[in-house]
Structure formats: structure tokens, C-alpha cells
Write a structure and sequence with these properties.
mainly beta, five-stranded mixed β-sheet, four-stranded antiparallel β-sheet, elongated, about 400 residues
């Protein structure tokens, strides 16, 4: 019996020792400030109007869209940090015993280049000395400081207004060596799309960044995936000279790569996995992506979706395009004219002569040229329409957001 239980005892001891070592390393190692591909972070310090840190201050991060608060407390040096926050506009409420509550409104953008938004907060005491202004004999009032606000508190209140959206394309990255760009929901919805492919997709924004080019032309007249005889061979776009298969597409951090070609996962016709109006942020990293990305060495194309909130909100949209609204393709030789046309400079014809005397006398053969390009555009009609809608299922707890889009294409 002892010979049968001895191996089990040794195995049990090894398991317990391994578990103890793992727990010791887990709790002894300081926690890293995690941040994934679809969230952002706030950090800051809480001080009084004399510049001394306030320990134990209560900080609430309230998403204005959902109203869900996240509570934290400042440490002994007045510092606080909160990561893994979805993008949006936040009200940061800071309160401490003996001080007036301060609120700061800031916008959090998840796709900025590893940026943690700083939040310096200055709290002023609840009770301050009230001064009575002395009237002047001229009758013109003298501006005086508010009796309930110190100059430091006034300076802190200046940051309570939500800043405008940062110009992400022109922002200089001082954190790491990555290159690329990001777009907020305002830029995604207002910048022109649909210049390279028939369908309207937010991936066209990548072509506005350095190092990103349209894919090579497929067999036939098409320039994008799903068009022409070589269906999908060109992919979505090429980055830094790499093949389109080297790109990695994600939506909300999840894999969204087509299994066969270098585009997003799609159906037979639909090249867009979701409507443009459902995108909160769009990011393309063209070089040296950080560790939270992976899979391919090309561009990391990251899309962040919108979400529901306490207030019902939505959009109904439609898009129409037709060959009658587009200029003909100058390189389309189908149906072009093969007739020779005299080449002229102003009203005079250009001639070819054998001697200078003939040229001076205007004796020679006229030079002609041919324009094989078609004067008419290939017939097609494209219609896209849909809606997005979000709202509360349970206020401050559970929300919904749905999107739908339909496409109708008639082309020769």
C-alpha cells in the first residue's frame, strides 16, 4: 500500500509547490498597466491649491454615453490610473473630504499612439475667506476674484471644457517607432470614400497615409477585390511594397481576415463587414506595430465599433452612384475611335518635312494621332443604404447597438 501511495504523494507535492510558486510570482509582481487595441487610459494627480498631493481622493470615470461610473482612489502621492476604457467622452469627478468636488470633461481616443491622457486635478478647500469689494468713487466696478474660487481652482476649471478632436493625422509620435495614422468617428463620416472601389468602405481611409498604395490591377478592367477575371487577387491595398496578403484586419480586436485573399472577411459581393456609420475609430499601423498586434508583418488595420448608450441614437443613410455621374476612364480603349486626327498647335497643323526649305515653305506631311480611349463610361448603377441604431436595454447597465446595410449593383 505504501508503494502505491508514494507516487501520488510525490505528484501532489510537486503540484502544490508549483501552484504556490505561481501564486507567489503573481502577487509579488507589480501589475502592468494593460491596454489593448480598442481601449484607452487616463492617469493623473490630485493636488490642493498649494500643490500638495491629496491621498485617498475619490475619482469616478463616467462615460457620458452609457453613464456607467468606474471608481478609483488616489495613492499616497495623489496619483491615479484607469485603463481598459472604451473610447468616448468622459466626465472625471474628483472629490475629497474638506475639498470641493471637481469635474473634468475629456475625450478618450483608443487608437492614439499608446497615449495615456493626463488629468491634472487641483482641489480647493470647501471654506474660503469671503472678501467684500471696496467701491470706487468713479462708479466703474473693479473686477475681483470670485469669493468661492481660488486662482488655482479657476485654472483647473479651465480644463473642464471637452477639447476638440485632435488632428491625429498631423500628430507627432514621441512614444515609439511605429508609423501610421488613426481617424475618429467624425473623420470617418466626413472624409470622402469610394474613390478606388465601387463600394463605399472605411478601408479607403488607409490610402490617405504614407506608404499605402492601391493594389495592382487585376486581370480585366477592375482595380479592387471581387472585380474582373482574377477575383480578389489584388487584395485591399499594398503597404510599404508588401503584398496585400501581409495585412492584418481586425474589428474590435477580433480577427477579420479573409481565408483566401488579402481583404476583410466578406460575402460574395459585400466587401464591407459593417457600415461606415457604425465605426467609432479606425486605425492603420504601417510599420513596427506594438506587441498587442500580430499575425502579419504588413499593416495592422484596426476598426473600433460604436456602442449603445442611455439615449437612443441612430442614423439612416443612403449612397447612390452611376456611370452618368462619372467621367470616362482615359485608359479604357474599349469602343474608342481609331480614326486619325491631325495634330495641331493652335490653328496650324504640325507637319513632318525632310529639309529646312520645305519646312519654311510649309511643305510636308501632316502628323496625325489616334485617341483609342472610349468617350462613354461603362454602364453601372450602385445603391447603398442602411441604418444604425443604439440605445438602452437596462439604463446604466445594458445597451444595444445594431447596424444593417444593403447594396444593389447593376453593371455591364
Amino acid at each position: 500500500m505504501n508503494s502505491q501511495t508514494a507516487p501520488f504523494s510525490r505528484a501532489a507535492r510537486c503540484f502544490l509547490l508549483s501552484a504556490l510558486a505561481f501564486l507567489t510570482l503573481y502577487f509579488a509582481t507589480p501589475q502592468a498597466k494593460a491596454q489593448d487595441t480598442v481601449t484607452g487610459a487616463f492617469e493623473g494627480t490630485v493636488r490642493n491649491d498649494q500643490g500638495a498631493p491629496i491621498a485617498g481622493a475619490s475619482i469616478q470615470f463616467i462615460n457620458q454615453l452609457t453613464g456607467v461610473p468606474i471608481a478609483r482612489r488616489s495613492d499616497a502621492e495623489g496619483r491615479f490610473y484607469q485603463g481598459l476604457l472604451p473610447p468616448g467622452v468622459y466626465t472625471i469627478r474628483v472629490s475629497a473630504q474638506g475639498y470641493r468636488t471637481q469635474e473634468v470633461e475629456l475625450r478618450l481616443v483608443a487608437t492614439l499612439k499608446n497615449q495615456v491622457v493626463p488629468v491634472p486635478v487641483i482641489l480647493s478647500p470647501e471654506t474660503t475667506a469671503v472678501t467684500t469689494p471696496t467701491p470706487t468713487p468713479t462708479g466703474s466696478p473693479v473686477p475681483t476674484a470670485s469669493p468661492t474660487q481660488s486662482p488655482a481652482a479657476t485654472q483647473a476649471n479651465a480644463g473642464n471644457v471637452a477639447p476638440e478632436s485632435p488632428n491625429i493625422l498631423s500628430e507627432i509620435n514621441t512614444t515609439d517607432a511605429r508609423r501610421g495614422g488613426a481617424f475618429t468617428d467624425e473623420e470617418v463620416s466626413t472624409l470622402p470614400l469610394g474613390s478606388k472601389t465601387l463600394t463605399r468602405t472605411f478601408d479607403d481611409l488607409a490610402l490617405l497615409l504614407p506608404g499605402v498604395a492601391a493594389p495592382p490591377q487585376t486581370v480585366g478592367n477592375g482595380t479592387g477585390p471581387g472585380i474582373g477575371a482574377g477575383v480578389g487577387t489584388s487584395g485591399q491595398f499594398a503597404v510599404n511594397g508588401l503584398r496585400s496578403r501581409a495585412n492584418n484586419f481586425t474589428v474590435d480586436g477580433s480577427d477579420n481576415n479573409d481565408e483566401d485573399i488579402g481583404v476583410r472577411r466578406q460575402g460574395f459581393f459585400a466587401l464591407v463587414p459593417q457600415p461606415v456609420e457604425s465605426i467609432q475609430e479606425f486605425q492603420v499601423i504601417t510599420l513596427l506595430a506594438p506587441a498587442q498586434f500580430g499575425r502579419n508583418i504588413g499593416a495592422q488595420v484596426n476598426a473600433v465599433s460604436k456602442s449603445g448608450g442611455n439615449a437612443m441614437h441612430g442614423t439612416i443613410f443612403g449612397f447612390f452612384n452611376s456611370s452618368q455621374l462619372n467621367a470616362p476612364n482615359a485608359f479604357d480603349s474599349t469602343g474608342g475611335s481609331a480614326a486619325a486626327t491631325p495634330l495641331k498647335v493652335g490653328s496650324q497643323s504640325v507637319i513632318s518635312c525632310t529639309t529646312n526649305a520645305n519646312c519654311l515653305a510649309g511643305i510636308g506631311a501632316p502628323i496625325t494621332t489616334r485617341n483609342p480611349s472610349s468617350s462613354t463610361e461603362d454602364s453601372f448603377t450602385l445603391g447603398q443604404g442602411g441604418f444604425v441604431l443604439g440605445g438602452p436595454l437596462v439604463p446604466n447597465r445594458m445597451f444595444y447597438f445594431i447596424s444593417a446595410e444593403g447594396q444593389n449593383l447593376n453593371a455591364n
